[in-house]
């Protein structure tokens, strides 16, 4: 009898085929890569590796990408194997670290390998859960570091979401780790139904048994889009806009796309589309037996706003007993947080809405609050969670239904469409194994959404895994210490990044050749001598620079108008009559419900034409204007949509001083740079050519300019691919040799004493930190001052304010200025060695970190951050403090001065208190 037979005999359910195949491969001593959808049960293969190692008297490490997942897996394994056999290491938590099975974050294992820790003795299996994190832009390199550096005797069990290039990834694993079995399953144990919610009606996305979009759904949307009763329509978040082309066609007496039926008499009530609030959507889901549900909303403010909507509604999803149980769990979870901090966190309001069965979940929340929400949801006490997409990548919180309100998210630079991989990851949360027979993915329709595009997302279930691996200073030092120079170069050139770049370089070279020919043909079309060609290209560059600056100025003006509009909307009161920009004439509306919050004000208005709904700042290019007041009875303010007639009649009866015209576009004032560029353009010799000749030359010059940019980009890409990671490593070693972190003896580089300190610093600004310590920039500070200065190398600004960074003491000012001078020198050295520039020190959190370490309350520190230019939620604040503590722990190990090491330890103790110490 094999051990697998014994293992499966103890399970309460039979294994699926792919689970059985994966466990067999583990028992036979192979490396394994298991790719399966979220919720398919791939972790059973990792759990079998744990059990097998324990049965053999060897060790198994179970790695996860985030602390929350590590904590959850630790408790799962303790429940099976007992607390004495399982340990937990997550950087700030250490439990039974010498156990035979240890759950840890990937960074902890990476650090163990570089330190050549004795904990690696007798290690036979490493489970890498969520191994597709290897593609993460910021942390993905850690996964490759482990795979490349782990002793070849250790078997890696990789557990991944379904990726389209699993064979390529598996082939690479086999190349660098030896025999690796790739097991792929597209089967979901709980099938997923795809739906679209249109108003208050829910439709299947697909025709039964096909990949075609549901005809009834398309017909319903066509009826809505062909309906136009007011001459103009308002779409929430889009503002007032002109009627669609087909509506104009109907008004002119043309049948348009929909023919006679689209305009035969007044529209039916069922064809009218009104956006519905979150409480209404919850009621629809409840009526369809689709709860519990997770609403994915791609902003923290959106999640909090949704929770506030539910709080204002009368909807309650819990009975008295459940409500009391929720309050008991909440009170236990916040025990130890000072009352004054709970006041800042608006704890009582948050507790009240949770007791009704609703919750939000996002990274801006206090960790203790997030853990409470997770516990309540898993226990079935919370029925609806409004979450950002980070929940899809984290802990095990499946629901019966996942709702997507939008298919567009902000990626840090712009709003982009969801990828098939992101859609798959989000909807993978739907369907609880052993509880639900079906999961539900519900997309909420909006006028700009094409159901066929949604069907395309829903039908594409895989996405490629692309390596982001590149060596940094800490990695280079550790590789050099472990493998020597030549061994490190060979190791880096075996990385998945190199493996992938070598395969794509041929296509890029072919594209370069085609672009070079195109550029040559374009240049031949300019009938000028070299001097005139140069003048044309200079003129084209000026025009391009002017266009870019004008766009930037327009964008700034729009942002300023939105701020003005936000201020106006936040101040509106019941009965205020406002004029809003319309297509031809301003439209009057009266406020029936004022905004509930100042940050994202959304007052409810009813227009003179009878439209009733919420408006927000995003819908206006210029702010509305208050032109008077209207007396409104309570039934209008309580039931605005049902009582639109009263408002319409009041507008007909009463007269208001309507503006004759309102701007529909934001006014853009030229900046000094725009004025200077425009003057330079007008004074340029080419500008005085005949208009036809000038524009022909400029048009051709613009094409040349674009082709040159394309060519430079492609050459850079090929150069980067050809310029192997090994050569990049060489340039890093050259800089570290200059700075005395690497020495050279008999032509062989080796790590110096300073380099051994750098090897212990795991931070995006690792070399900057090492340089500050070596030069004594951070010496002679008290604990609060040191914590504040160190934050410059740990803080990641997310949202800025108009505040300016400051420091409360002269020694702290000197240390902060010194840190910036060291960075400027380092950045110059990096550019000289053709290396990426280290992140610039960020001073916005320094004052808040100083005050927190000195004992100030939470509210005071959040205000200090805002004064210094950083707008932080409580969750952001806690995470930022923890990042500073993590770096302080490294300073305590690597500082040259004994006093500085002691100060760092005192700073850690002072900062780890209150909301930072609880629930992290």
Automatic annotation (TrEMBL):
Any coiled-coil regions, as ranges: 697-724
Superkingdom of the organism of origin: Bacteria
Domain Helicase C-terminal residues, every copy: 277-481
UniProt EC number: 3.6.4.-
Ranges of residues in domain Helicase ATP-binding: 23-181
Biased composition (Basic and acidic residues): 254-273
Alphabetized UniProt keyword annotations: ATP-binding, Coiled coil, Helicase, Hydrolase, Nucleotide-binding
GO-annotated molecular function: helicase activity; hydrolase activity
Matches recorded under Gene3D superfamilies: 1.10.3380.30, P-loop containing nucleotide triphosphate hydrolases
InterPro entries: DEAD/DEAH_box_helicase_dom, Helicase_ATP-bd, Helicase_C-like, P-loop_NTPase, RNA-DNA_Helicase, SH3_HelY, Ski2/MTR4_C
CDD domains cross-referenced by the UniProt entry: SF2_C_Ski2
Region described as Disordered: spans on this chain: 227-277
Protein name: ATP-dependent RNA helicase HelY
């Amino acid at each position: 009898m094999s051990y697998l037979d014994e293992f499966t005999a103890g399970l309460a359910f039979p294994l699926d085929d792919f689970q059985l195949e994966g466990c067999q491969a583990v028992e036979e001593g192979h490396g394994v890569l298991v790719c399966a959808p979220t919720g398919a049960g791939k972790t059973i293969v990792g759990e079998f590796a744990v059990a097998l190692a324990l049965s053999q008297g060897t060790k198994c490490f179970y790695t996860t990408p985030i602390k929350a997942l590590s904590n959850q897996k630790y408790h799962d394994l303790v429940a099976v194997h007992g607390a004495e056999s399982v340990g937990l290491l997550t950087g700030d938590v250490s439990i039974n670290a010498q156990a035979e099975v240890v759950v840890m974050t990937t960074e902890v294992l990476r650090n163990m390998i570089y330190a050549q820790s004795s904990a690696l003795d007798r290690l036979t299996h490493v489970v890498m859960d969520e191994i597709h994190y290897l593609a993460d832009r910021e942390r993905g390199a850690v996964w490759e570091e482990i795979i490349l550096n782990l002793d070849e005797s250790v078997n890696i069990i990789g557990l991944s979401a379904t990726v389209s290039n699993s064979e390529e990834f598996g082939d690479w694993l086999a190349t660098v780790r030896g025999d690796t079995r790739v097991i792929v399953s597209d089967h979901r144990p709980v099938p997923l139904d795809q739906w679209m919610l249109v108003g208050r009606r829910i439709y299947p996305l697909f025709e039964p048994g096909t990949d075609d979009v549901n005809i009834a759904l398309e017909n319903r949307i066509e009826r809505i889009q062909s309906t136009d009763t007011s001459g103009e329509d308002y779409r929430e978040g889009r503002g007032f806009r002109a009627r669609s082309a087909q509506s104009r066609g109907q008004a002119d007496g043309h049948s348009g796309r929909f023919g006679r039926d689209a305009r035969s008499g007044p529209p039916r009530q069922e064809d009218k589309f009104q956006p519905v609030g979150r409480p209404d959507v919850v009621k629809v889901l409840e009526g369809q037996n689709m709860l519990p549900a997770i609403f994915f909303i791609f902003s923290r403010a959106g999640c909090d706003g949704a929770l506030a909507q539910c709080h204002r509604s009368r909807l309650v999803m819990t009975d008295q007993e459940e409500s009391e149980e929720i309050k008991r769990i909440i009170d236990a979870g916040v025990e130890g947080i000072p009352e004054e901090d709970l006041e800042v966190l608006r704890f009582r309001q948050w507790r009240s809405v949770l007791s009704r069965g609703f919750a939000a979940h996002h990274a801006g929340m206090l960790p203790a609050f997030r853990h409470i929400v997770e516990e309540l949801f898993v226990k079935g006490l919370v029925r609806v969670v409004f979450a950002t997409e980070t929940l899809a990548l984290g802990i095990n919180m499946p629901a019966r239904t996942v709702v997507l309100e939008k298919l567009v998210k902000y990626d840090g630079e712009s709003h982009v469409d969801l990828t098939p991989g992101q859609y798959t990851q989000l909807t993978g949360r739907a369907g609880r194994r052993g509880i639900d027979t079906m999961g539900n993915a519900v997309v909420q329709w909006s006028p700009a959404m094409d159901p066929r595009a949604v069907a395309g997302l829903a039908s594409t279930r895989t996405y490629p895994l692309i390596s982001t691996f590149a060596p940094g200073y800490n990695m280079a030092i550790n590789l050099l210490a472990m493998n020597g120079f030549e061994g490190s170069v060979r190791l880096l050139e075996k990385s998945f990044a190199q493996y992938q770049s070598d395969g794509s370089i041929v296509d890029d070279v072919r594209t370069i050749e085609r672009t070079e020919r195109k550029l040559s043909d374009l240049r031949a079309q300019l009938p000028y001598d070299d001097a005139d060609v140069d003048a044309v290209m200079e003129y084209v560059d000026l025009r391009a620079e002017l266009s870019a600056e004008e766009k930037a100025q327009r964008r700034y003006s729009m942002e300023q108008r939105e701020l003005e509009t936000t201020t106006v909307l936040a101040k509106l009161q019941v009965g205020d009559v406002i004029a809003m920009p319309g297509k031809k004439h301003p439209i009057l509306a009266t406020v029936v419900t004022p905004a509930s919050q100042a940050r994202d004000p959304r007052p409810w208005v009813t227009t003179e034409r009878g439209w009733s709904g919420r408006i927000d700042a995003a819908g206006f290019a210029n702010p509305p204007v208050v032109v008077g007041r209207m007396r409104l009875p309570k039934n209008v303010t309580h039931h605005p949509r049902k009582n639109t007639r009263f408002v319409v009649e009041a507008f007909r009866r009463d007269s208001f001083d309507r503006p004759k015209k309102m701007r529909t576009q934001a006014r853009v004032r030229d900046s000094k740079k725009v004025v200077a560029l425009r003057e330079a353009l007008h004074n340029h010799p080419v500008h005085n050519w005949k208009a036809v000749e000038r524009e022909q030359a400029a048009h051709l010059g613009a094409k040349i300019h674009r082709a040159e940019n394309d060519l430079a980009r492609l050459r850079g890409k090929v150069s980067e691919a050809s310029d192997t990671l090994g050569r990049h490593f060489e340039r890093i070693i050259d800089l570290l040799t200059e700075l005395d972190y690497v020495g050279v003896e008999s032509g062989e580089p080796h790590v110096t004493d300073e380099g051994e300190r750098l090897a212990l610093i795991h931070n995006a600004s690792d070399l900057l930190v090492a340089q500050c310590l070596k030069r004594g920039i951070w010496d002679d500070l008290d604990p609060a001052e040191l914590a504040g200065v160190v934050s410059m190398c740990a803080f990641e600004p997310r949202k800025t304010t108009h505040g300016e960074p400051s420091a409360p003491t002269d020694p702290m000012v000197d240390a902060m200025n010194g840190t910036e001078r060291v960075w400027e020198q380092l950045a110059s050295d990096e550019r000289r060695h053709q290396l990426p520039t280290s992140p610039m020190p960020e001073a916005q959190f320094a004052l808040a970190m100083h005050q927190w370490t000195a004992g100030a309350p939470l509210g005071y520190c959040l205000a200090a951050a805002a004064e210094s230019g950083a707008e932080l939620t409580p969750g952001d604040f806690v995470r930022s403090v923890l990042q500073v503590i993590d770096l302080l722990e490294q300073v305590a190990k690597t500082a040259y001065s004994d006093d500085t090491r002691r100060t760092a330890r005192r700073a850690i103790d002072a900062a780890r208190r209150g909301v930072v110490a609880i629930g992290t």
